[in-house]
Write a structure and sequence with these properties.
The protein is of the alpha/beta class and 253 residues long. The chain is 47% helix and 15% strand. The protein is built from 8 helices and 7 strands, in the order E-H-E-H-E-H-E-H-E-H-E-H-H-H-E. It is globular and about 45 Å long. The two termini are 30 Å apart.
Length: 253
Protein backbone atom coordinates (compact mmCIF):
# COMPACT_ATOMS: atom_id res chain seq x y z
CA UNK A 1 0.00 0.00 0.00
CA UNK A 2 1.39 3.37 -1.03
CA UNK A 3 0.44 6.86 0.01
CA UNK A 4 -1.95 6.85 -2.93
CA UNK A 5 -3.61 3.48 -2.30
CA UNK A 6 -5.68 2.55 0.73
CA UNK A 7 -7.67 -0.21 -0.93
CA UNK A 8 -8.94 -2.75 1.58
CA UNK A 9 -8.49 -0.40 4.54
CA UNK A 10 -11.17 1.22 6.68
CA UNK A 11 -10.59 4.75 7.98
CA UNK A 12 -12.60 6.48 10.69
CA UNK A 13 -12.24 10.27 10.65
CA UNK A 14 -13.70 12.28 13.52
CA UNK A 15 -14.89 15.82 12.94
CA UNK A 16 -15.33 14.89 9.27
CA UNK A 17 -18.35 17.02 8.36
CA UNK A 18 -16.21 20.04 7.51
CA UNK A 19 -12.73 21.50 7.46
CA UNK A 20 -9.63 19.33 7.74
CA UNK A 21 -11.66 16.26 8.69
CA UNK A 22 -13.81 16.53 5.58
CA UNK A 23 -10.74 16.94 3.41
CA UNK A 24 -9.10 13.91 4.98
CA UNK A 25 -12.11 11.60 4.67
CA UNK A 26 -12.53 12.58 1.03
CA UNK A 27 -8.82 11.93 0.48
CA UNK A 28 -9.05 8.42 1.89
CA UNK A 29 -12.16 7.63 -0.15
CA UNK A 30 -10.55 8.83 -3.35
CA UNK A 31 -7.67 6.43 -2.67
CA UNK A 32 -9.81 3.36 -2.20
CA UNK A 33 -10.49 3.22 1.54
CA UNK A 34 -13.86 2.52 3.06
CA UNK A 35 -14.51 5.61 5.13
CA UNK A 36 -16.53 6.43 8.21
CA UNK A 37 -17.60 10.07 8.31
CA UNK A 38 -17.95 10.67 12.05
CA UNK A 39 -19.22 13.96 13.39
CA UNK A 40 -21.53 15.44 16.02
CA UNK A 41 -23.24 17.19 13.10
CA UNK A 42 -25.21 14.21 11.80
CA UNK A 43 -26.63 16.10 8.81
CA UNK A 44 -23.20 17.30 7.76
CA UNK A 45 -21.73 13.81 8.08
CA UNK A 46 -24.60 12.39 6.00
CA UNK A 47 -24.00 15.00 3.30
CA UNK A 48 -20.30 14.20 3.02
CA UNK A 49 -20.90 10.44 3.02
CA UNK A 50 -23.60 10.76 0.35
CA UNK A 51 -21.33 12.82 -1.88
CA UNK A 52 -18.51 10.28 -1.52
CA UNK A 53 -20.89 7.43 -2.34
CA UNK A 54 -22.24 9.32 -5.37
CA UNK A 55 -18.68 9.61 -6.64
CA UNK A 56 -18.22 5.85 -6.36
CA UNK A 57 -16.64 5.62 -2.92
CA UNK A 58 -17.58 3.44 0.04
CA UNK A 59 -18.74 5.62 2.91
CA UNK A 60 -20.98 5.60 5.93
CA UNK A 61 -21.97 8.45 8.21
CA UNK A 62 -22.16 8.11 11.97
CA UNK A 63 -23.26 10.66 14.53
CA UNK A 64 -20.43 10.73 17.06
CA UNK A 65 -19.97 12.88 20.14
CA UNK A 66 -16.28 12.41 20.87
CA UNK A 67 -16.78 13.52 24.48
CA UNK A 68 -19.21 10.63 25.14
CA UNK A 69 -17.60 7.19 25.39
CA UNK A 70 -20.87 5.40 24.61
CA UNK A 71 -21.29 7.39 21.41
CA UNK A 72 -17.69 6.73 20.38
CA UNK A 73 -17.86 3.00 21.13
CA UNK A 74 -21.13 2.65 19.22
CA UNK A 75 -19.67 4.40 16.17
CA UNK A 76 -16.62 2.13 16.13
CA UNK A 77 -18.82 -0.97 16.42
CA UNK A 78 -20.97 0.25 13.54
CA UNK A 79 -17.88 0.85 11.42
CA UNK A 80 -16.56 -2.65 12.10
CA UNK A 81 -19.93 -4.19 11.29
CA UNK A 82 -20.14 -2.31 8.00
CA UNK A 83 -16.58 -2.75 6.75
CA UNK A 84 -15.29 -5.73 8.74
CA UNK A 85 -12.30 -3.96 10.24
CA UNK A 86 -11.07 -0.66 11.64
CA UNK A 87 -7.57 0.01 10.33
CA UNK A 88 -7.07 3.76 10.51
CA UNK A 89 -8.23 6.43 12.95
CA UNK A 90 -7.78 10.13 12.28
CA UNK A 91 -8.72 12.40 15.19
CA UNK A 92 -9.54 15.82 13.76
CA UNK A 93 -12.46 16.74 16.04
CA UNK A 94 -11.60 19.72 18.21
CA UNK A 95 -11.35 23.47 18.25
CA UNK A 96 -12.27 26.45 20.43
CA UNK A 97 -14.58 29.41 20.17
CA UNK A 98 -12.47 32.48 20.91
CA UNK A 99 -9.23 33.62 22.46
CA UNK A 100 -9.68 34.83 26.03
CA UNK A 101 -7.29 35.62 28.90
CA UNK A 102 -6.64 32.79 31.34
CA UNK A 103 -8.46 34.53 34.20
CA UNK A 104 -11.63 34.75 32.11
CA UNK A 105 -11.90 31.02 31.39
CA UNK A 106 -14.79 29.64 33.43
CA UNK A 107 -14.68 26.15 34.91
CA UNK A 108 -17.24 24.72 32.52
CA UNK A 109 -15.54 26.28 29.48
CA UNK A 110 -12.18 24.77 30.51
CA UNK A 111 -13.76 21.36 30.91
CA UNK A 112 -15.63 21.63 27.60
CA UNK A 113 -12.56 22.51 25.54
CA UNK A 114 -10.35 19.90 27.23
CA UNK A 115 -13.05 17.27 26.72
CA UNK A 116 -13.44 18.15 23.05
CA UNK A 117 -9.75 18.30 22.18
CA UNK A 118 -8.07 15.85 24.57
CA UNK A 119 -10.59 13.49 26.12
CA UNK A 120 -12.28 12.97 22.77
CA UNK A 121 -8.98 11.96 21.20
CA UNK A 122 -8.34 9.50 24.01
CA UNK A 123 -11.82 7.97 23.83
CA UNK A 124 -11.58 7.41 20.08
CA UNK A 125 -8.12 5.87 20.43
CA UNK A 126 -9.27 3.62 23.27
CA UNK A 127 -12.22 2.39 21.21
CA UNK A 128 -10.12 1.25 18.23
CA UNK A 129 -7.04 -0.09 20.03
CA UNK A 130 -8.34 -3.60 20.82
CA UNK A 131 -9.26 -4.22 17.17
CA UNK A 132 -5.92 -2.91 15.92
CA UNK A 133 -3.96 -4.95 18.45
CA UNK A 134 -5.85 -8.08 17.47
CA UNK A 135 -5.04 -7.54 13.78
CA UNK A 136 -1.51 -6.41 14.65
CA UNK A 137 -1.81 -3.49 12.28
CA UNK A 138 -3.15 0.01 12.66
CA UNK A 139 -2.59 3.68 12.03
CA UNK A 140 -3.64 6.47 14.38
CA UNK A 141 -3.04 10.11 13.51
CA UNK A 142 -3.97 12.77 16.04
CA UNK A 143 -4.47 16.37 14.95
CA UNK A 144 -2.85 18.71 17.45
CA UNK A 145 -2.02 22.33 16.62
CA UNK A 146 0.87 24.73 16.35
CA UNK A 147 -0.54 25.98 19.67
CA UNK A 148 0.49 22.64 21.15
CA UNK A 149 4.07 23.15 19.99
CA UNK A 150 4.72 26.71 21.19
CA UNK A 151 2.78 29.67 22.64
CA UNK A 152 0.63 31.37 19.99
CA UNK A 153 -1.03 34.74 20.51
CA UNK A 154 -4.00 33.77 18.32
CA UNK A 155 -5.15 30.94 20.58
CA UNK A 156 -6.27 30.42 24.18
CA UNK A 157 -4.87 28.65 27.22
CA UNK A 158 -7.42 25.83 27.47
CA UNK A 159 -7.08 24.93 23.78
CA UNK A 160 -3.27 25.14 23.81
CA UNK A 161 -3.08 23.02 26.97
CA UNK A 162 -5.31 20.32 25.48
CA UNK A 163 -3.43 20.25 22.18
CA UNK A 164 -0.10 20.00 24.01
CA UNK A 165 -1.46 17.06 25.98
CA UNK A 166 -2.51 15.38 22.71
CA UNK A 167 1.18 15.23 21.78
CA UNK A 168 2.02 13.51 25.07
CA UNK A 169 -0.83 11.06 24.53
CA UNK A 170 0.49 10.39 21.02
CA UNK A 171 4.01 9.60 22.19
CA UNK A 172 2.86 7.32 25.00
CA UNK A 173 0.50 5.37 22.76
CA UNK A 174 3.24 5.04 20.14
CA UNK A 175 5.48 3.33 22.69
CA UNK A 176 2.67 1.18 24.08
CA UNK A 177 1.26 0.04 20.74
CA UNK A 178 4.45 -0.30 18.71
CA UNK A 179 4.92 -3.99 19.59
CA UNK A 180 1.50 -4.68 18.07
CA UNK A 181 2.27 -3.11 14.70
CA UNK A 182 0.26 0.02 15.40
CA UNK A 183 1.81 3.42 14.70
CA UNK A 184 0.61 6.59 16.41
CA UNK A 185 1.64 9.99 15.11
CA UNK A 186 0.44 13.58 15.13
CA UNK A 187 0.30 16.60 12.92
CA UNK A 188 0.40 20.16 14.25
CA UNK A 189 -1.39 22.39 11.75
CA UNK A 190 -0.95 26.11 11.60
CA UNK A 191 -3.93 28.37 11.02
CA UNK A 192 -5.94 26.73 8.24
CA UNK A 193 -8.80 28.22 6.23
CA UNK A 194 -11.55 25.92 7.41
CA UNK A 195 -15.07 27.32 7.90
CA UNK A 196 -14.54 27.42 11.68
CA UNK A 197 -11.26 29.35 11.42
CA UNK A 198 -12.54 31.67 8.70
CA UNK A 199 -15.28 32.79 11.12
CA UNK A 200 -12.83 33.16 14.00
CA UNK A 201 -10.44 35.80 12.60
CA UNK A 202 -10.74 39.14 10.84
CA UNK A 203 -9.13 39.89 7.45
CA UNK A 204 -6.60 42.04 9.30
CA UNK A 205 -5.65 39.12 11.54
CA UNK A 206 -5.18 36.85 8.53
CA UNK A 207 -2.97 39.48 6.86
CA UNK A 208 -0.86 39.67 10.01
CA UNK A 209 -0.54 35.87 10.14
CA UNK A 210 0.65 35.83 6.53
CA UNK A 211 3.44 38.22 7.47
CA UNK A 212 4.53 35.87 10.27
CA UNK A 213 4.61 32.85 7.97
CA UNK A 214 7.83 32.14 6.02
CA UNK A 215 5.83 30.62 3.13
CA UNK A 216 3.77 33.82 2.99
CA UNK A 217 0.24 32.43 3.00
CA UNK A 218 -2.43 30.87 5.20
CA UNK A 219 -2.81 27.09 4.88
CA UNK A 220 -5.61 25.59 2.82
CA UNK A 221 -7.31 22.39 3.96
CA UNK A 222 -5.49 20.38 1.27
CA UNK A 223 -2.14 21.43 2.78
CA UNK A 224 -3.09 19.47 5.92
CA UNK A 225 -4.55 16.43 4.15
CA UNK A 226 -1.43 15.10 2.43
CA UNK A 227 0.75 14.82 5.59
CA UNK A 228 -2.07 12.99 7.39
CA UNK A 229 -2.51 10.55 4.52
CA UNK A 230 1.23 9.95 4.48
CA UNK A 231 1.32 9.08 8.19
CA UNK A 232 -1.51 6.60 7.61
CA UNK A 233 0.20 5.00 4.63
CA UNK A 234 2.62 2.11 4.27
CA UNK A 235 5.23 4.70 3.36
CA UNK A 236 5.25 5.77 7.03
CA UNK A 237 5.44 2.23 8.41
CA UNK A 238 8.64 3.03 10.36
CA UNK A 239 7.42 6.39 11.70
CA UNK A 240 5.77 6.45 15.12
CA UNK A 241 5.60 8.89 18.01
CA UNK A 242 6.39 11.75 15.62
CA UNK A 243 4.80 15.14 15.10
CA UNK A 244 4.82 16.84 11.70
CA UNK A 245 4.54 20.63 11.86
CA UNK A 246 2.37 21.84 8.98
CA UNK A 247 2.52 25.55 9.69
CA UNK A 248 4.25 27.10 6.70
CA UNK A 249 7.39 27.53 8.75
CA UNK A 250 5.90 29.40 11.72
CA UNK A 251 7.00 26.51 13.93
CA UNK A 252 10.43 24.99 13.35
CA UNK A 253 11.56 22.38 15.89
Amino acid sequence: MSVNDFSGRTAIVTGAAQGIGEGVVRGFAARGAGVVVADLNADGAARVAAEIAAAGGAAMAVAMDVTDSRSVDAAVRAAAERFGSVDILINTAGGFGKSVPAEDIADDEWQRIVALNLTGTFLACRAVIPRMKQRRWGRIVNVSSEAGRMPMIVTALHYASAKTAVLGLTRHLARELGPFGVTVNAVAPGTTLSPRVAALHSPERFAWLKQLTPLGRIAEVDDQVAPILFLASEGARYVTGATIDVSGGRVMM
